[in-house]
Design a protein that fits this description.
heterodimer; A: about 200 residues; mainly alpha; 8 helices; about 0% strand; elongated; B: about 230 residues; 2 domains; about 70% helix
């Protein structure tokens, strides 16, 4: 086949389907974000849970731009549901890196796909980043209601250095998720002839 | 819900997306409280005219309650855990407008008008096909999820072992999604989506008076609120 490297309609349909699965699972996991502070480990858990989905997707569609499009639809959807423009902009950067990593492994190598997924997984940190950016306004409100002490402890938790830890958690979660995905691929999907 | 075509008070999805973006700015720059109320009433009006009376009322009351929140002195002495939840509500207060505007977009737009607005915006096929597929897939996804839950109940699988639980949910989910994706792509192939020609849309996209009015009002609220 000549145009092997281009996305066909079949691949685009696969992207659509997997976005839905990813999105629904993401919201399911997102329930834990209801408990404050736990949302800081949300990216890690998300990585572990969604690893299988994305690794299967990467195994199915080994073509350029596939992961980029899949990764951009969820932030755009979340944008249209009321997140700020920080999220899509942050995601473009993340997805470009993930795409380049996949390209380095020629879209096939597990090692590079794993790193690509680990980077991909950090896109959700954008939603925490936007909280960081409204922090000043937020602190103003908390000081007046909950007292200096509480607002101070909040300020200590949500900081840029701690965000780095969140990113690290997301990457680690991504790697664990990718390994779980690899086991599942071997155990179930190859047998069923899906990949 | 009235159709997009028949209802003169339903802005087109492009307008709604643009205003959601504008409302997103309110998260970073506080606007005057009076203008905020103006925005709430405007959103409620659009909800009401599109037949979502409950949402219109809910919008006004919940914003009123959120406004009361920072002024309560009782919270000062409240328990730590309670404070945590109030914190979440305050966060919601900051993102109130983008979230509500997004709700408006999702609730009042039907699939046809969304797809034809993607056409109008000249989005590449790489984006419009996945989005169209997503709309088609959501209902069957819900159905399949119920089947998986039922099957798990019959076999007595519960949340005791989270890792096994994840396995028992994701594996059937992914296998059935792969099968559906194959089906849809066959259907798409037979309709010659790979080699498109100019086609007509069942729901054409129109720019109505409400589109101008709504955009101008939202802009006025933002600019006025920032300058006040």
């Amino acid at each position: 086949m000549k145009n092997n490297k281009k996305l066909t309609v079949k691949d685009l349909v696969t992207i659509g389907i997997f976005t839905v699965v990813y999105f629904v699972v993401m919201f399911g996991v997102g329930m834990i974000g209801m408990v404050p502070i736990l949302f800081l480990i949300y990216p890690t858990i998300l990585g572990v849970v969604t690893g299988t989905i994305i690794m299967l997707f990467m195994a199915k569609v080994q073509k350029p731009w596939a992961i980029f499009i899949l990764g951009m639809i969820s932030p755009l959807l979340m944008f249209s549901m009321g997140h700020t423009y920080i999220l899509p902009v942050h995601s473009i950067i993340v997805m470009t890196i993930a795409e380049l990593l996949r390209k380095a492994g020629e879209y096939k190598s597990f090692k590079y796909n794993m790193f690509s997924f680990a980077v991909f997984n950090t896109w959700i940190c954008g939603s925490i980043m936007q909280m960081l950016l409204v922090k000043d306004r937020y602190l103003e409100m908390t000081v007046s209601t909950m007292g200096e002490e509480f607002a101070g402890s909040m300020e200590k938790i949500v900081t840029f250095p701690n965000m780095a830890l969140v990113y690290l958690g997301a990457i680690l979660g991504g790697i664990v998720g990718a390994y779980i995905g690899k086991v599942f691929l071997k155990k179930h999907f190859e047998k069923a002839g899906i990949v | 819900m009235l159709d997009y075509e028949e209802n003169p008070y339903n802005p087109n999805p492009v307008t709604k997306l643009f205003t959601t973006f504008l409302f997103g700015l309110t998260a970073f720059h506080q606007i005057n409280i009076l203008f905020e109320w103006g925005a709430v009433l405007l959103l409620s009006f659009i909800f009401y005219k599109n037949g979502f009376i409950r949402d219109a009322i809910k919008n006004i009351t919940s914003f009123g309650l959120l406004c009361l929140l920072p002024n309560l002195t009782v919270i000062q002495s409240a328990h730590f855990i309670l404070k945590m939840f109030l914190m979440l509500l305050l966060m919601y207060r900051i993102f109130y407008f983008p979230v509500t505007s997004g709700k408006l977009l999702v609730k009042t737009s039907d699939v046809g008008s969304v797809i034809s607005s993607m056409d109008k915006l000249k989005l590449p096929r790489a984006v419009s096909i996945p989005v169209a597929v997503m709309f088609r897939f959501f209902p069957s996804f819900r159905e399949e999820r119920r089947n998986i839950k039922l099957a798990m109940k019959i076999r007595g699988i519960d949340f005791k072992n989270p890792l096994a639980y994840i396995e028992h949910v994701t594996v059937p989910l992914l296998i059935m999604s792969s099968n559906i994706s194959d089906d849809i792509s066959k259907a798409a192939e037979t309709r010659c989506i790979a080699n498109p020609i100019k086609k007509t849309r069942y729901i054409p996209l129109k720019v109505k008076f409400i589109d101008f009015l709504y955009t101008v009002l939202v802009l006025a609220i933002l600019v006025g609120g920032l300058l006040w």
